[in-house]
Amino acid sequence: MNDLSLTDVAATPYETPLLRVSGLCKNFGAVVACRNVSFALWPGEVLGVVGESGSGKTTLLNCVSARLQPDAGRIEFQLRDGRVAELFEMSEPARRMLMRTDWGIVHQNPRDGLRLGVSAGANVGERLMAVGARHYGEIRGNAADWLRKVEIEVARIDDPPRTFSGGMQQRLQIARNLVSRPRLVLMDEPTGGLDVSVQARLLDLLRGLCSELGLAAIVVTHDLGVARLLAHRLTVMRRGEIVESGLTDQVLDDPQHPYTQLLVASILQ
Amino acid sequence: MSDHRLRVIGLEKGFTLHNQGGMRLPVLRGIDLTVAAGECVVLKGPSGTGKSTLLRTLYGNYLVEQGHVLVRHDERVIDLATAPPRLILEMRRRTMGFVSQFLRVIPRVPTIDIVAEPLRSLGIAAQAARQRAGTLLERLAIPQRLWSLPPATFSGGEQQRVNVARGLIAEQPIIVLDEPTAALDDLNRAVVMALIDEVRRRGSAIIGIFHDVEVRDALGTRIFELPHAESA
Amino acid sequence: MSEGEEQTAGGYNFAYLDEQTKRMIRRAILKAVAIPGYQVPFASREMPLPFGWGTGGIQVTASIIGPNDRLKVIDQGADDTTNAVSIRQFFAKTAGVATTDRTSHASIVQTRHRIPETPLREDQIIVYQVPIPEPMRWLEQREAETRRMHALADYGPMYVRLYEDIAQFGRVTTAYDYPVMVNGRYLMRPSPIPKFDNPKMNMSAALQLFGAGREKRIYAVPPYTSVKSLDFTDHPFTIERWDNSCAICGANDSFLDEVITDDRGSRLFVCSDTDYCRQRRAVKAAE
């Protein structure tokens, strides 16, 4: 008999997460932006962080991306060689190198993440040049490949992003980050401010890239629809704290916390 | 000698509506159920007894409140009550397929890719996955000219057939079905029934809700009657 | 170098600057030589020339010059332009040193915009006048940020600039003040010399010192140090070439100036380095 019994239940084997945030705290004077935030992220997972304005989700992202130093807590990242390093215990050159190669940051406003006066090709090629690529033809070829991947006409490789639409600028920003094959991408409202049809296209692209490249990503958004589409897991933040966390479809279809229930009930269908 | 794939022990599930003054809706209570390979367990009970809720709980879409849901996953036994979300995602990929009542439409993704996706996430190459998806779609009478279109503009019946294809294509060891034939005409219903039966014969453990008595009788190997929550 | 007790015309200290200032500048120079290509801040003094006229170069020269030195000053390769004449007279007056217009006779060469064609020797020092020392200023206006970029060798954006040029024009269009990598570590701006002169900086036998008075920076390239112009492996650095040779001395290996001779557009090409041209003419005449 091949029965299932409670005594058969095995403990889940431990796998080192790609990123582990523990007890993150950040205050701005008397304002508590993040309080004791903890979560982990494994390779290939997309984690959605949802919350309304003031929830602390952007502060969280800024701390994790090392733009802000947290007041307490640890941010541990597993490097390519398997060692685990704490983000703020690293030397600044090491951290900068990490940000430039193994991590990507997609800003809400693509203008914050692009060089507007420089051609699309140069924007995409910059990370390669920053780590020593010195063959113009190869850099250009790489840039063209990535433009294709993000569905920007390759003919526009020499145009500056100033001449692009918002959606194209955002896709260029993604290409600029992904060219160095990062293992972790942080995204802050990647579809914010874009027209609905443009959003759909971008989300589809992000879904595809995350799955094709096995990217781990943290997507901060206030839009539950975006979260449902992109994220495998979801954390809900409110007033600086995580109030609920779990599988995306479970959090959205069976919300436990009163605030999550409120959020979910507020979506226009 | 039975090969148990899924076992529910003392499952309790209710909903607390915090924004309606904390009102509590009890739905499931004291559910004990086992499903073995090659079985098709049909859930029975009047509307409101929690059939859909039970299926969703088995899939991890709803949280287990009390009790256990044991699933044989790879060589291990996991309990959905305590399994971390990542493990449940893995389980969905390899061990448990789900055909929901309505197709959740993702903009822009072509039908063929929607159906191929469960195979892709198992690591099967795009070309091979699309080929199998195509075969299945053909069988379900979705013409080839529709394969490159997203299903948003399809009829309810067409969408449901796409949904069924996607849910069955990977033939996981456990398949959960929520009214798979609801929107279908006679011909297509017959095709879907045949598909489900084939999957069962090939060894999957199936549990489902079938509104139609005829379908229930044809596919089910066993009936499971849900008690009313209050009377359990 | 002697401690300046000699008083020269007008009661100035030797070479105009007081001894403490010279010490301060020499310390900066030592630092600069120890870290090739690195910009060392220094307390630039008020000089009797306005900013933009070579006050940085003058302060460097004033700090290293001694009574036995022989000074050559050139501007655009010529000894007889206004700037060169003024500076030469300045040192003649305040230091009483010998001056020359022959590169091979000078122990110190102060220059604006050119490196002499005649190769320099180990016993010579060349002092460059620098307007903007920071090679990335066009890209990043914040001093704190450019310093950080140098500290972290974060030079990607410079290559972005080269990439852009090649994408737009098919080649790098920077013709002067072409950025270089010194000793494989620091990105440096060689001052507005034509790119034609960049190769002369590489493995030079002479000590090269750079002074920026307004920006208050000194940097240096010690002798026999590698100085490599930035390029791509498939678009290597090239120097200017002319179809003509010098109309006066016949040289085809020197930097030529184009001179318009009448208002019908007739033009002549002559060596920019007047000393070099004269030497060659003398040799030809002797033949």
What can you see in these coordinates?
The complex is a heterotrimer of chains A (269), B (232) and C (287). The mean pLDDT of chain A is 92. In chain A, strand 9 and strand 10 form a beta hairpin. With 269 residues, chain A is α/β, with parallel strands linked by helices. The longest helix of chain A has 18 residues, at 196-213. Chain A is 35% helix and 24% strand. Chain A is built from 9 helices and 10 strands. In chain B, the strands form 2 sheets. In chain B, strands 6-7-8-3-9 form a 5-stranded parallel β-sheet. In chain B, strands 2-1-4-5 form a 4-stranded antiparallel β-sheet, with helices on one face. Chain B has helices spanning 51-59, 85-94, 111-120, 126-139, 156-168, 186-201, 213-219, and strands at 4-17, 23-36, 40-44, 66-73, 76-79, 96-99, 174-178, 205-209, 222-225. Chain B has 232 residues and is an alpha/beta fold. Chain B has 7 helices and 9 strands. Chain C is α/β, with parallel strands linked by helices and 287 residues long. Chain C has a 7-stranded mixed β-sheet with strand order 1-9-8-5-4-2-3. Chain C has a 3-stranded antiparallel β-sheet with strand order 7-6-10. Chain C has a two-stranded antiparallel sheet with strand order 11-12. Chain C is globular, with a radius of gyration of 19 Å. Mean pLDDT of chain C is 93; it is low at 1-5. At the A-B interface, helix 6, helix 8 and helix 9 of A face strand 1, strand 4, strand 5 and helix 2 of B.
List keywords for this structure.
heterotrimer; A: 269 residues; alpha/beta; 9 helices; 10 strands; 24% strand; globular; B: 232 residues; 5-stranded parallel β-sheet; 4-stranded antiparallel β-sheet; 7 helices; 34% helix; 27% strand
